[in-house]
Amino acid sequence: MRLGISLAALCALSLTFAGCAPSTPGSASVATASAPEAFSAERLARIEALLQQYVDEERIAGAVALVLRDGEPVFERAVGWRDKEAGDPMQVDTIFRIASQTKALTSAAVLALMEEGKLRLNGPVSEFIPGFAKTTVAVPGGKPVPAVRPITIRDLLTHTAGISYGTEPHLAERYAAQGLGPAAGFGWYTADKDEPVCETMERLATLPFAAQPGERFVYGYATDVLGCVVERASGMSLDEFLRTRFFEPLGMRDTHFFLPEDKRERLAVVYARRADGTIERAPEGARGQGHYLEGPRKSFSGGAGLLSTAHDYARFLEMIRNDGVLDGARILAPRTVALMRTNQLEDAPGGRGFGFGFQTVERYGANGMDAPGAHGWGGAYSTTYRIDPEARLVMVLMLQLLPGPTDLGEKFPALVHQALLEPLAGT
């Protein structure tokens, strides 16, 4: 059974887990006996050593790292602190704010609706959000101009709709007046909004965008718009759709938009980076710890709203790696999954493209040691993940540090790959 992790295996691989003997954060050594033959146990230990170094240097409070090969754990480790000030150690089942890692799940939800004939990839967004029928594009120093064509579902999936987070100087004031953009919070953050996400997206449609549809890659609210599309096309809230179509079939029991009260003590604290690189506890409120516990619980952000664990998110990624099925649960068709991990952009600057929900690697060396065909992304709280089909790997690194990303997003996959003693296919 894929991703079937026994208590004994967890106790061997993990620093702390319910039912295992307690230990001091970072004090235990990696169990080497469980490392598959293709991996060097000594080299895998470098992952823990680096994470522990970052904890000791107060560059992060703590982290959870999980590596799967063929769905089985190669390395799983909790290091440091869930709540440093309270002396509460990080656990392998700690829950994290995953921010933009939400985007891959929302993109998969859109494609599931495509499979049911409820939407078209090349169909206009205005079929579901009428305000998008006639959008405009901002011109620095001038009046907005009409969009040259309607924005499509495809544009949103590939971040080529021209929709930013309103960070541009000529957009910031307009976006803030509508409760959007960085001046109104983190820009991407909506958990504090006392309105459904579709109301926010309808308001977004009245604002000028950063580029013409199809002109270039622009990262922003596109996947939040898709979250509204999912709601309108399915007749369900995004929360209900993801829960019934993905979380429950995949056994993702700890993935939520807003945390149940009985899981409060498992949510990791957010830390902020000082100018010298050390950390301090982020303040309370939407700009710090957030409203995932006590917020209005009305806005389900398809672009940045979810909470999850390393284990839960790895379940989703393993389904993607396994062409849409996991433990007998068929979530997506193989050809649908292929759309997600195939570059959909006309070019791939630096050897990296973008599919329907994932950044893609088009040549070896473009993204560290990721093989061509690898894909992944990360989140604003410094979380990161990769799927490497050639190596049959899923990699997840969870921590809570703002601003993100950190250099661990590049170092962690490199340390995983350097521990794999098989050559790259075709080299």
Shape: globular
Task: State the separation between the terminal residues, measured CA to CA.
Answer: 32 Å
Sheet-strand content, in percent, reads 5-15%
- Class by helix and strand content? alpha+beta
Strand order of the largest sheet: 3-2-1-16-15-14-13-12
By CATH, the topology of the domain at 7-95 and 306-418 is Beta-lactamase
Q: Give the CATH level 1 class of the domain at 7-95 and 306-418.
A: Alpha Beta
Which regions are unreliable across 5 or more consecutive residues at pLDDT < 50? 1-24, 26-33
Overall number of strands: 17
How would you name the oligomeric state of the polypeptide chains in this document? Answer: single chain
| Rg over CA atoms | 21 Å
Into which percent range does the helicity of residues fall?
25-40%
Describe the structure.
The chain starts with 6 loop residues before the first helix and ends in a 9-residue tail after the last helix. The chain has helices at residues 7-13, 41-56, 102-115, 153-157, 169-177, 197-204, 222-234, 238-250, 310-321, 334-340, 408-418, and strands at 62-69, 72-83, 88-89, 96-97, 136-137, 145-146, 271-273, 279-281, 307-308, 325-326, 329-330, 352-354, 359-361, 375-378, 384-388, 393-398, 401-402. The protein is an alpha+beta fold. Helix 2 (41-56) packs antiparallel against helix 11 and helix 3 (102-115) packs parallel to helix 7. The chain is built from eleven helices and 17 strands. A hairpin with a 4-residue loop joins strand 15 and strand 16 (393-398). It has a domain at 7-95 and 306-418: Beta-lactamase, CATH 3.40.710. Strands 3-2-1-16-15-14-13-12 form an eight-stranded antiparallel sheet, with helices on both faces.
